[in-house]
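Page 42, continued from yesterday. The earlier attempt failed because a stray header line got pasted into the input along with the sequence. Redoing it now with the clean sequence only.
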Amino acid sequence: MDMHAYEEAKNRHLALTFSQTSATLALCHEKAKDLCGGQVEPLRYQNKSSYLVHAGPKLEFTVGFFLDSVEISPHAIVQAGRTPPSRFAAALSARGRVGAEDGKGMRVYLWKRVHGVSYGEFLYGIPSSNAPWVFVHLCHSATVLIPGAELETRRQDFNTRLQALPAYLDLMFPGAIEECIRSIDSIFSIGMIMFPVDELILNIMADPVTCHVNGIANWASGRPYPFGMYFHIIYWLCGDGRAMQGWGTFNDQEHKWNSFWVSFQAKLGVMPKDIMENVVSAMLAGAIIDYHGTTMLLNTPRLPQGVYECADHKQTHTARFIHLVLHLKQTI
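This time it went through. Structure tokens are written below.
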């Protein structure tokens, strides 16, 4: 992807974000300077519904401006007070707002900058010496504590979603849904982690030379999930999926898949058998729910070709993941 296309994508996201708020780029920059002093530098890649800048005398902080319509996870904010701090989750603190108070403003959050090249930058061709290897491994923060009432609500929600899955999935993945429903209590007993789903994947930051993951640049919309439930997102890290351009395959995609499974099984092998079974069940449940969601997206009338192509490849890779997990479950 050339830099022209990258700039187009960034400008498109910025235009969409600021069309929904009374805040302006100038107000955001002024707020960042008030908070951190020094200079202000926008991130090279911008997500939808937010605007992020680096700020401070040495650009050592990140300031995030989020539309009022964006739900900020309270668990992301709690990261700031956790001891010991997570290796991957930057401490996030609320710092007021900019713009109007009528739901058209932006909430402001501050955290310590995570250095590296982001997955979003990598996709859009910003140079890094060893980029294809950077995003092989999934990362997540330390376990987060969820209040009992919220944990039960989330368990019931996932159970309801599993119960509502259509019969065609039973034909594709025999016994998988029944296994997930039977294991739902065990899945939610293995611990919850903050996980960077959806656009947060674009905020994974890694060292461009060593390829080690440094952290997540923006955890504000992260959500807690049972450990393993969103591991199928590895498909996105093994290919080049951009909604407007469709899907591209990395030359070493097969090696990436194999690297993930070898590393994962090596780590999983040190767990007690019952924990291993619960983690694999969580992997299965998350993948099946996402597979059905992608099927519904593919059935949307007049879906743009690039979006359709990305969703189609996502579905293919998620199905492959499900079959691999079913095989893994038989070997435990």
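Notes: The two ends are 42 Å apart (CA to CA).
Reminder to self: strip header lines before submitting.
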